[in-house]
Specification:
The structure holds two protein chains of two kinds. By secondary structure, chain A is of the alpha/beta class. Helices cover 49% and strands 10% of the residues of chain A. The longest helix of chain B is centred in the first third of the chain and has 28 residues. Classes of the chains: A alpha/beta, B mainly alpha. The interface between A and B is medium-sized, with 29 and 30 residues.
């Protein structure tokens, strides 16, 4: 009798084990270059993907210390996702070459450049030469700090995952569902849940594309005024712009100082003006003359905030703060760069929260 | 994992073959930091090339497709490397000339000065010519993990030639390294042989530093030889022991870089293992001395 139960138990466990192995096999191995891409891929791929990131959060993504394990990850990968725009130019090729994995070569289905359809800024219109500093000839690669681009990256990743999982209709549906949920999360964080609900009405709030169109065209305020006039006629309470856009409204046109040319996209989206950078040219450490010029500018133009990534040294910013009283906002531009930046949305949320807090002081 | 580490492993073997021998000379002469100084001067040449190329109206060399048809084309394609070597030879000449007969100024002081001044000059130039920042970092930090087949072949051929030259003139080089005064009295042209030594040394380290970085190259040069000097007096035993120690360190260091979930950067793993082996050698030496096995 006992033996029978034991047999059943063993068989049961075996079956569960086999099912597990089978389920494991169904997963796609994805390697991303940065933690932000990893976070977005996990949000969209859900249970169908295993994702590893080459850079750790809070690292300067221009440089990494290469470890043999990166090659083995790449060797087992079904998909390699990069930021592109020459950000990974220092290490991507040797890792891909060392992995000897034909699936993830540049141009194959297993190689995705996340910058394919994004809104790109600062593409040099003339020949780049070294006197201009570390200018990326293919445009500024720090584009993931614009939530609008976050949506586009998500869609690109979803498309590519579906291509790789084409045989499994159910998984493709799951990817679509996750992608819509992720985009909705960004939209609600950007405009506030109230406004997203308003625009999508009774339809499932899968997408607030219209809000983005208005935002890009600079007509969002007009739209809200019109909507509220309509609602007044129907005796409904008025809607307000919430979320990041709502929080940042008050600071439109504010001048900021940055350390590296890495906040262009963020500033562009939220209407901030980057008046000056601490690096005299991108990639060149601050020089005394330049610091003096920055201090002068901050005092003359009454600039209130200096935003910098947490992997730069605080020495030069501290000096400027001492001389001018400017507020230093230390942020992380990557998921995992500090403890509260757990995923893509909370990473952006952190930058906004820190900036607003320092401006309110 | 093994296939990933094959080229780094081969590169380490080729590097250690020549560096271990050269390191013996370096330790005997007491010019421990000569590799840093030569590598940094060479890096200065490379940085200067970045600055000069736009001024001279040269395009940056395109490594994927260099059409080398004429001498001018060749010069343009390899301009940074040519300048790198020129600076390495310049430093070699400087080291050969700066050896004072009565040692009023220690040679190591000159080497240190060359290192800091060329490092500072490189930074000054870089403040005007960006992108070079990554170039210099690459040159000094290197990344042994990214060594590929053509790197290994290139250093193998070059080191083979240098090895043959050194084997041919071994008596001369050793005479100077062992006792410079005696060599001079015997009528040898110390300045000339010194220049040849430092020039060949410069050729060697500019290549190895570019592939493996300063930390790793320094370890390969010095640590096995310091271990060997503790146990042996005859040159050939020192060399064999040094090669043995290096081989163990390479295998152990590469293995360590693959341990654990994430692994570790390869270069620092190698250096760490070298350091550990040195500590073990020191204890072994003390133990042997206690037992009276060493004179």
């Amino acid at each position: 009798m006992k033996n029978k139960y034991l047999c059943l138990l063993v068989i049961g466990l075996l079956v569960i084990g086999l099912l597990n192995i089978w389920a494991e096999e169904k997963k796609l191995n994805v390697v991303t270059t940065t933690t932000d891409l990893k976070s977005i891929t996990e949000s969209i791929g859900g249970d169908f993907v295993n994702v590893k990131s080459v850079c750790q959060g809070g690292q300067d993504p221009h440089f990494i210390q290469a470890k043999p394990v990166f090659m083995t990850w790449a060797r087992d990968a079904d998909l390699w996702i990069r930021i592109g725009r020459e950000l990974e130019v220092g290490y991507e090729a040797p890792i891909l070459e060392g992995s000897r994995n034909p699936k993830i070569k540049v141009g194959e289905t297993g190689h995705l450049d996340a910058s394919e359809h994004i809104l790109l800024l600062e593409v040099p219109t003339k020949q780049v030469d070294r006197s201009m500093g570390d200018v990326h000839p293919l445009g500024n690669p720090h584009y993931w700090l614009d939530p609008y681009n976050g949506r586009i990256i998500a869609k690109s990743i979803a498309e590519r995952l579906k291509k790789l999982l084409a045989e499994n209709a159910e998984q493709c549906r799951g990817i679509d569902k996750n992608c819509n949920a992720f985009i909705k999360k960004i939209d609600e964080a950007m405009f506030g849940a109230e406004l997203v609900k308003e625009i999508s009405g009774d339809k499932p709030a899968s997408s607030a594309d219209r809000l983005w169109e208005l935002e890009l065209a600079g007509k969002l305020d007009e739209f809200i005024t019109e909507t509220n006039t309509e609602r007044k006629k129907q005796d409904k309470p008025s809607v307000t712009l919430g979320g990041w856009a709502g929080k940042m409204r008050a600071y439109r046109g504010s001048k900021i100082i940055t350390y590296h040319r890495s906040l262009s996209y963020f500033a562009n989206r939220f209407g901030l003006v980057v008046a000056e950078e601490l690096e005299p040219k991108p990639g060149i450490p601050p020089s005394p003359n330049h610091l003096v010029a920055v201090i002068k500018k901050v005092n003359e133009e009454k600039i209130k905030a200096l935003i910098m990534e947490n992997y730069y040294s605080c020495k030069a910013p501290d000096l400027i703060a001492e001389k001018t009283g400017i507020k230093i906002v230390v942020i992380t531009n990557s998921v995992g760069g500090d403890e509260s930046a757990k995923d893509y949305v909370s990473m952006i949320d952190n930058i906004i929260t820190k900036f607003v807090k320092s401006m309110e002081k | 994992m093994l296939d990933v580490l094959m080229y780094p492993f081969l590169a380490c073997l080729v590097i250690t073959a020549l560096h271990c021998y050269m390191g013996l000379h370096v330790v005997k002469r007491g010019v421990i930091f000569v590799d840093l100084a030569l590598a940094q001067t060479a890096a200065l040449g490379g940085v200067l090339a970045l600055l000069l190329m736009p001024i001279l109206g040269m395009e940056a060399p395109d490594h994927d497709a260099v059409a080398v048809r004429s001498f001018a084309g060749f010069l343009q394609a390899h301009f940074p490397y040519i300048l790198t070597l020129a600076f390495a030879f310049l430093a070699a000449a400087l080291f050969a000339l700066s050896r004072f007969r009565d040692e009023r100024v220690p040679h190591e002081a000159i080497i240190g000065i060359v290192y800091v001044v060329s490092a500072a000059l490189a930074v000054l130039i870089l403040s005007k010519a960006p992108h070079g920042h990554e170039k210099m970092e690459e040159m000094l930090v290197g990344n042994i993990l990214f060594a590929n087949g053509s790197d290994v072949l290139k250093i193998f051929l070059l080191y083979f030639v240098l090895g043959v030259v050194h084997f041919f003139f071994r008596k001369k080089f050793f005479a100077i390294s062992d006792d410079v005064k005696r060599a001079e009295q015997a009528g040898m042209s110390v300045r000339w042989w010194d220049f040849l030594f430092y020039a060949s040394f410069g050729l060697m380290v500019t290549q190895s530093v570019g592939i493996a970085g300063v930390l790793v190259v320094f370890s390969f040069l010095i640590i096995p030889n310091v271990c060997a000097l503790m146990f042996f007096r005859r040159f050939i035993y020192q060399l064999l022991f040094g090669w043995g120690v290096s081989f163990i360190a390479i295998v152990a260091g590469l293995w360590f870089s693959t341990t654990g979930q994430e692994g570790y950067p390869v270069g620092p793993s190698l250096v760490g293992v070298f350091g550990l082996i040195l500590v073990l050698c020191v204890f072994a030496r003390l133990g042997f001395a206690k037992l009276g096995w060493l004179k």
